[in-house]
Write a structure and sequence with these properties.
Elements (H helix, E strand, L loop, with lengths): L1 H32 L2 H13 L3 H5 L14 H10 L2 E12 L2 E12 L2 E14 L2 E4 L4 E7 L6 E3 L9 E3 L2 E2 L2 E3 L4 E3 L5 E2 L5 E5 L1 E3 L1 H20 L3 H4 L15 E4 L1 H5 L2 E4 L7 E16 L5 E16 L7 E3 L4
Parallel strand pairs: 5-12
Antiparallel strand pairs: 1-2, 2-3, 3-4, 5-7, 6-9, 8-11, 10-13, 14-16, 15-16, 16-17, 17-18
Length: 316
């Protein structure tokens, strides 16, 4: 009889353990899926797998037209920078509302961007839902507007609804890209995002090689025809008289920019350091032969329509 009672209480204890364990599993599953943190995690995971319908299901669908809250646009956002590393940092609950801290990573081609923020959630029956599931923002691009598209359409004048992640703007030239400071949208964004275009890394490398060759010609050629348009420190220096070398570090320090126009022509500017000999005019227009180092202002431009062929801009 004692042995049977022992088996009975052992069975009861096992049942209690299973109930507690089952409750813990159920609670954990609830927190993972239906709690405020689970709702936020599920939302971002839906975005990461390009599931627009599932993401919208975690909150109220915005009023009005939402042509960019689709799987197709999410796929474009993911192609630019997939979302990964989704995590919940903290949860602050006040009755039927809660603020959830989150973090995720956008893996852009030129390096990852870490994003963190806080989302407000509310309890609706047995579910927690996000108070907002998309950002309502205006997009303003000052450069190369004629070469840019949001998803597959021209950039709208009016604000649009977008999921968080990479801004799905593409240029019709691989030589352009959005600057890193303006290439993603977040749920906390409001108002207008001022976008900025920049020269893509591969294009910058091509321009640097081309400009290095042009500068080499300027300081080694004896042909006036080849050096007539070359940059000079100022108008007292004799064209074609500079012979020497250009410091490579100064070439690497030049700035590459996209012009402030709809076509988005590319410009290169700054100063390079020259070492060698040169002729300079005094105030009586007498030529003097000199040697040493000079700082030369450089300004060149390249057309996207002409395969990035650089040409010198008017020099002093």
């Amino acid at each position: 009889m004692a042995r049977h009672r022992g088996l009975f209480w052992a069975g009861v204890l096992c049942a209690v353990v299973l109930v507690v364990a089952g409750g813990a599993v159920a609670w954990f599953a609830y927190r993972q899926t239906d709690g405020p943190d689970g709702a936020v995690r599920g939302y971002f995971e839906a975005i990461a797998r390009d599931d627009a319908a599932a993401a919208l299901g975690y909150g109220t669908v915005p009023h009005g037209a939402t042509p960019y809250l689709t799987d197709a646009v999410l796929k474009q956002q993911s192609a630019i920078a997939p979302m990964s590393g989704i995590g919940i940092t903290d949860v602050t609950q006040h009755g039927r509302t809660a603020e959830v801290g989150y973090t995720y990573r956008l893996d852009f081609a030129d390096g990852p961007q870490q994003v963190k923020g806080t989302l407000r959630t509310s309890e609706h029956g047995t579910r927690w839902r996000l108070d907002t599931v998309a950002a309502h923002v205006g997009l303003q691009l000052a450069q190369a507007q004629n070469r840019a598209a949001l998803a597959t359409t021209p950039i709208p004048v009016d604000p649009v609804w977008l999921f968080p992640g990479a801004i799905p703007i593409r240029f019709d030239s691989p030589d352009l890209e959005l600057a890193a400071s303006t290439d993603d949208v977040r749920l906390s964004d409001v108002g207008t995002i001022s976008l900025r275009a920049q020269v893509a890394p591969a294009a910058k490398e091509r321009l640097t090689r081309q400009l290095t060759a042009m500068l080499h010609t300027c300081v080694t050629s004896t042909s006036l025809a080849q050096t007539a348009d070359c940059p000079l420190p100022d108008d007292r220096y004799v064209p074609g008289s500079l012979h020497g070398t250009i410091a490579r570090t100064s070439v690497d320090g030049l700035g590459y920019n996209v012009a402030l126009d709809a076509g988005g022509e590319l410009t290169v500017g700054g100063h390079v350091t020259f070492h060698g000999t040169y002729d300079v005019l005094d105030f009586q227009d007498v030529v003097h032969h000199r040697s040493g180092a000079l700082s030369i202002p450089v300004q060149a431009q390249a057309s996207l329509a002409k395969d990035l062929q650089l040409s010198w801009v008017n020099h002093p």
